[in-house]
Amino acid sequence: VQLQASGGGLVQAGGSLRLSCAASGSTFSINVMGWYRQAPGKQRELVAEIGSGGNTNYADSVKGRFTISRDNTKNTVSLQMNSLKPEDTAVYYCYVSRYFNDRYWGQGTLVTVSS
After folding, report:
1. 59-88 as b/e, with b when 16 or more CB fall inside 10 Å?
2. pLDDT, tens only, 22-35
3. Which is nearest to 67 in space by CA: 92, 43, 51, 50?
4. Rounded to whole angstroms, how far apart are CA atoms 92 and 105?
5. Rounded Cα gap, residues 33 and 21, in angstroms
6. pLDDT of residue 28
């Protein structure tokens, strides 16, 4: 499975960005799609994930501000990020997990939120 992420950039605090990630290749049996992020000097952390049935899970720090969605027909996952804060600055990585319990990662896209 190959993942191509897009949509990162520079935004002022309070602004919005939308990240998208498209999966290609052996996309059959994709189960969970989601996003992690890694800020400088910190561990990678889960941001949000969405199951094949649409059930979602969010980090407490982004609840109410970020919304994850997916299009199963196109094998894409998106992350709408509103009310961005400087602490949201990180490299964001999309991923997919298949029912075989394997996981694939995108190349990462940088989100920078200025204060």
Report:
1. eeebeeebbbbbeeeebbbbbbbeebeeeb
2. 999 988 889 999 99
3. 50
4. 10
5. 9
6. 86
